[in-house]
Amino acid sequence: MHDSDHPPFGELAIPEFIPVPLRRSRRDGWTPERQNSFIATLANTGCVAAAARSAGMGVTSAYALRRRPGACAFATAWDIALRDARHRALEVAMRTVFSGALSPRTYRGNFTGTLIRKDDIHATLAALRAATSLSSADPPK
Prior knowledge:
This protein is mostly helical. It has a single domain (about 15-135), classed as Arc Repressor Mutant, subunit A, CATH 1.10.10. Helix content is about 50%, strand content about 10%. A two-stranded antiparallel ribbon has the order 1-2. The chain starts with about 30 loop residues before the first helix and ends in a 6-residue tail after the last helix. Residues about 1-10 have low confidence and may be disordered.
């Protein structure tokens, strides 16, 4: 996979969807703007909690919105955003495993240089976790 296959993090393609229709509109509820904010942040971070927080809502209410009648497009956009974010995380982790991780070096608080570490076990473990989570991305029931 090449870097040109996916846009950089700043230029993410946010999945389009039809917001979940709600019986009544509330200022503190899941407005279409909040739903868009949630999906955009989810696509950027891959974290449901961060996406809910950015929309000013809770994780529990996000999953409840996903299960509502008429939420099929929202749920599909959620799945696409989460899948794409996890694929990008896996790509970054694998690139780090194979190319090495840059590690800044300092002496007495002053920057002295950069070391490329290719034996970073943390990056390897992150890549493995990302790979296994790609197949188990289903929401809790």
